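Our preliminary data section would be incomplete without showing what the modeling component actually yields. Below, a chain of 484 amino acids is followed by its predicted structure, encoded as tokens that our downstream tools consume directly.
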Amino acid sequence: MAASDKYIKNYINGALVPSLSGNYIDDYNPSTGEVYAYLPDSDAEDVAQAVEAASEAFAKWSAIGIQKRFRILMRIADIIEQNLEEFAKAESMDSGKPLNMSSTVDIPRAVSNFRFFATAMVQFSSDAHYMEKQAFNFTLRQPLGVVGCISPWNLPLYLFTWKIAPALATGNCVVAKPSELTPMTAFLLSKGCMEAGLPAGVLNIVHGLGPKTGEAIVTHPQVKAISFTGGTKTGRRIAGLAAPEFKKISLELGGKNPNIIFADCDFDQMMVDTLRSSFSNNGQICLCGSRILVERPLYEKFRDEFVKRTRFLKVGDPFGKTTDLGALISKEHKEKVQSYLELAEMEGGTILCGGTEPELDGKLANGYFLKPAVVEGLGNDCRFNQEEIFGPVVSIQPFDTEEEALQLANGVRYGLSSTVWTQDISRASRMAEGLEAGIVWINCWMLRDLRTPFGGVKQSGVGREGGQEVLRFFTEAKNVCIKY
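Predicted structure:
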């Protein structure tokens, strides 16, 4: 990293600038526990500058035409792809995740987000309704204006671009805030946008803290919509601020996802994917299956094999070629996860493996590492099985009937995703229909088609992202009726 890049800058009106206050926030490397960069401590004045730039750019960007927007967004995708190694290293340094994951999942998905939504907008069509011998109606879908996009730390560039790309493709101008814990790839994206020739003011990236910078974006009167991914508590706060101003909101929030395993499953494939769905990115993915429900005839076999495989997972240097799990995002988050493991034992559970800190040498000795843990013996009503932990910990529970599996799976306040393992297509269909979740995976996990709607029910969120759904979110429908 160049010395100048240690001081991250805001991207406002096409230029890289410090915050108006001149203050900075420490950016920690989770693998070493050391400060390695600094990001702007922006406030409402910085946000106001960004909104003003976006407002001025909107008329031209919204009228520039779909084909020109398509070409610019495709150039941004090409620049990210051409610099994939730099982006991936920055992502792993900033978040603590293994370089292999950044290189094969996070950064390629960011490229796909720009390409998919640039292409989707070219093919986006409106509705027409014919009134026999009187008139016909057609629907205009027009951009909203200035929109706010706020993304989390767990999949930094992946989810940042998941919001920005469709907002730009539909003709909006954006004021965006990445997480203050993982700002580096958003900073690199700023440079990529400048290189791609994105007009000044179309995308503005303002770094800072959620209660200060994020809230200023949500409450600014010229920001017409908010797309947010993060915790349910923050989502509730955003909804409360946005509702009185009648702003559109899309909130992708927490999860406590069930992984339901029937005895007739393909055991080998299920084990591979269940290990992934439990501990990918240290369990710091909203779609991870943190509650594993196993049909009783298979329970002991599953438990023994799953614990054995969990113990084999290598925790360590994100840049190590054989590393399975890197560091958790922060010291505070690691301590939160550890407190839930202590709670599990207090509630009567047994930690079958993990939950301890690995012995690492050198700078890694001060990193935020934790061995993945499996907990047994807890009921569905305990806090450990009800509250989102967002770490490398899962609980396992047996069930006897399909009805009991559904009751356990739906017995939480969240409803983001579910996974079902069975070879019985009728059972799979019944489970898919009965599960209270926005996504149901059958015999797979994290298999994503960007054309499909994405989001949760209950306290897992409001609205849908992806495909046509997000293009509709970032546009306003206007009916035009022509009498003849």
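The first strand starts at residue 10 and ends at 12. DSSP finds 15 helices and 22 strands in the chain. Preliminary results of this kind motivate Aim 1 of the renewal.
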